[in-house]
Structures are given as structure tokens and as C-alpha cells.
Amino acid sequence: MTDSTSKEGPFRPEARNPRGFADKRARDLRAERAILEAVSAVYERYGFEALDTGAFEYADALGKFLPDSDRPNEGVFALQDDADLDGKNGQWMALRYDLTAPLARFAAQNWETLAKPFRRYAYGPVWRNEKPGPGRFREFIQCDADTVGSARPEADAEIIAMAVEGLQAAGLPRGAAVLKINNRKLLNGLLTAAGVETQGQKLSVLRAVDKLDRLGVEGVRLLLGEGRLDESGAFTKGAGLVGKSIDAVLDFVQAGSGGRTGTLANIANVIGGSAEGDEGLEELAKIDAALKSLGVDDDQAVFEPSIVRGLEYYTGAVFEAELLLSTLDEKGHKVSFGSIGGGGRYDDLVARFTGQQTPATGFSFGVSRLAAALRAAGRETGVTARGPVVIINFDQAHMGEYFAVAAELRHAGIPAEVYLGSSGMRPQMKYADRRMAPAAIMLGGDEIAAGTVTIKDLDLGRELASGVADNAAWKAERPGQQTIPRGELVAAVKTIIGRKIIGE
Q1: pTM exceeds 0.90
Q2: Does the pLDDT of residue 100 top 50, yes or no?
Q3: What is the number of alpha carbons within 13 Å of residue 184 lying toward its C-beta?
């Protein structure tokens, strides 16, 4: 669409965000950056190397959203590349919907030159062409760590331990989140023990299990049987199980007690004898042993039989990070963030390119979601509301002096700016306050002649103003304002910035 002029005047587009896309201001960006730096440091301590891949991948490399029509846009944002040199139509490309599919492509493309197992971490935006909603965006930040080339359960355990440590580094104290772990092989063993045979019935059972947190045991019981009528009157058809089959599934999903060791024993009583189920139990036992050696206790990572992730994607262990903190939104309403990350073992993804099974396991943090959860819980880290020091512009004739002051502060590592608007002093002070400047620098003709500079400590002013009753007396006292020799400017500003302010 192009701008045009009509009888009504020039076209004026409405200033608006596309649905599902949000602007981020400095506080949001600082919060996300703090999380990324903290989590990346954990990944690097575990020996993982950074990798960045392009925003676009060829659509046929994405796997989950393979094109089934002329335009492969189901779930992704796609466009067609320019025609090839031989005149053939260009291939379809899509914005990456996660960081794992690009990793699989990279590993397959560079397998012969990689040190194996290949341990990498990555972070960046991903895009999903899905219906947006509250807290659900079409663009968001993820931070992943994956090991490609190791089939050992200990590789899963290391990913889990790293996720636990990463959550704590991001600002969640012990007890604020928990890693819930299951194994797809246990779920398959359960289906065998319950006598479930058809694919449709298997999916119905697993979907019912996945709703345990929301519907409770009795709600799941109904979905395993004939079906469930919800509060709105809508009926959901059930899996059609009866008697002992329903009991077996319910015993399984309620087996999570007695710590990780107790849970394994409880699960064995339900699905013991299934070859695939026994294999899953053995893998979880090895994960448990490794987690104990890594110092991950039962309150930090638990075996949870009701966790169901990626029915067609994960091949072994699956894990999900759940926030346990009670959080409130801006209106004081309780908000449940639930899952703030997840992952598992996916041994078939690289094989899409190579034809050979390549074991892999990994975990992904939803950085944007985690930042929102930390803010709602009042646990943001690495975020400061301070803006730059503002140099008040009294006279255009002294602009050179103002810029010299700004340069001196910047060279000392202090963010600073000269006010470049056209307002008087009072609006300039309001500007500095709105920018949350720690200090305002005032340098008029008298100060320049005397070799001095006046500093107003805005941090102190904001702190003291909260207890002021007499506004006239407040103005007369000018709290936090001092005139000092010009050569002491940097030291004085550093003192102001270094002082702990109430509320930070």
C-alpha cells in the first residue's frame, strides 16, 4: 500500500502494532538482557558453546510445518525466495518458529567437522503465526541449550541440572520453580498396560493425562471413559476405556510421591513388565543418579508422570519448568504463568536430513515469559530505572562547555546527555525527572567563570520528597543540591550513582 492524496487530504495510516507483536522499552530490554546474560553464563560453565543461525530457514527444513499446499504458512510466517538462476521458482522460506529446528539443520550440514557430542546454546527471537492472546505473542525470545550426539541418560540429567541452575541465576530462588520430568517410553508402557491399541485412542488417553492439573483426577477419569460435559455445556468425547484400564492410567498419573526414588517404584508397580516401560524406568533411574551427583535435590527436579509434551516429537525423557511463585498482574489479580520452559530428548530430528538416527536432548527457556513472571513476582534482577545524567542547557553560547561535561562523564563510564530541546529550566528539570536521571548538572555563566558546577541529586530528591508535608519549605531547602569545584564533578556524580536508593 502506498501513500496517496485525495480530496480529504493525504493518507494517514493509523499508528498501531500488528496483532501479536509488542514494542519493548528500555526496562523490558534490560530485564531480558539480564536473564540472557545470567543463563548464558551457566551454559558456558557447563562447556556449551554459542551458536547463532539466521532468522529464515527453508520451509522444508522446519519439519513440523512442512508445506502441504502452494503456500506453506500454517503456523509460520513464510515467503517465496527469488527465482533461481535457471529461472525455476524460488524455494519457500519461513521465519524460524524455534531454535531447535535450525540446530538440527546446522548439525546435519556440519556433522563431519563438529566435535561430538556437539554442545551448543543459542538465544534470539522466534516467530509463530498463531492466534495471539493475553501473554501469547507471535514474536518472543527463547534461550536454548542442546547436546547432539549423546544417547546417554546422563546427557538428559546435565540439561536438567543446567536448567535448574539457570532458573536460579535468572532470579528465581530455590522453591520458586521446579523441573518436572517424565519419559515418553513410560507413557507408551502405560498404554500397553492399559490395553490401548488404536492410535486415536492413544492420543485421547494422553490428552486426558495432560489435563490432570486443570481438571483433577475425576475430570481425567471422565475423559478416559465416555467423555466429559464442561461448565458451558460442551461435551468432550472420551477415550472409551473401562474398568481396570481407567484405574491403571489414574494409578500412573498419581504415582508422583516419595521423591524421585519413590515415584519410580510406584510407576514400576503400574507398568512393570512392559519392555518399553522398563526401558523408560531404567533411563529415569540413571537420570536420578546423575542428578544426585550434580547436587539437584527432589525439591528442584521431580518425576511427574502426568507431563506430556510433543507427542510426535520427543522420543525419551521430557521435562518442563513450572513457576511456583504466586504472581499478580497490574490490577492485583492473581496470575498463573505455569510453564516457563521445557525440553526433552528428540533422537529423530537430525535424521530428517541424514536418514540416520542422531541422539539429541535439550531445554528451552521462554525468556520473554520468564521476564514477565519475574516482574509480576517482584523479582526482576539486573534492572535499574535510572536514566542518564542530564546537563541542563541554560544558554546556547555555552553549548561547548555542556558537551565537554557530557564527554568527561561518558569517558568515566557514566551515561550522560545534554538537553537538546528548546524548553526553559523548569521543563528541563521535569524532563530529567521523567528520564529518572540520578542527577542534573547546572552550568551557567557564573559557574563557568568561577570554575564550579552545580549538581542536583535527583535520586535523593525523589527519596526525600515522599515524606515532605510543606512544599514551600522543601523548595527553599533545595535538598541534594551542591556547588563544587569543576574538577570534582566526576567523583561527586559517582558518589550519587553509587548510593543505595530506597525502592531499588
Answers
A1: no
A2: yes
A3: 17
